[in-house]
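For the sake of clarity, the format in which proteins appear in this thesis is described at this point. The fold follows as a row of integers, each naming the local backbone shape at the matching residue. One such record is shown here in full, so that the layout can be seen directly:
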Amino acid sequence: MARVRFIGPEPVTVPELGGRTVEPDEVVEVPDDRFDGYVCQTTNWESVEEPKAGDEAPVAPLKKTAARPQKEG
């Protein structure tokens, strides 16, 4: 989990964190795959601890289809 600090001026409720109220200057843990969604809001959040390399959620491999449909005959 990554960590971010809320730097907004007043408490805010964050639905993604289970509806938790976050106070100004409070540090919270956020899912690694959502870290960028917080720190891109530079007037509200700042990075404290970035996601660790290799901690990303595994990505399912793409399913491949046949190059050509088989002919029925």
Summary: The longest strand covers residues 2-6. The first helix runs from residue 35 to 39.
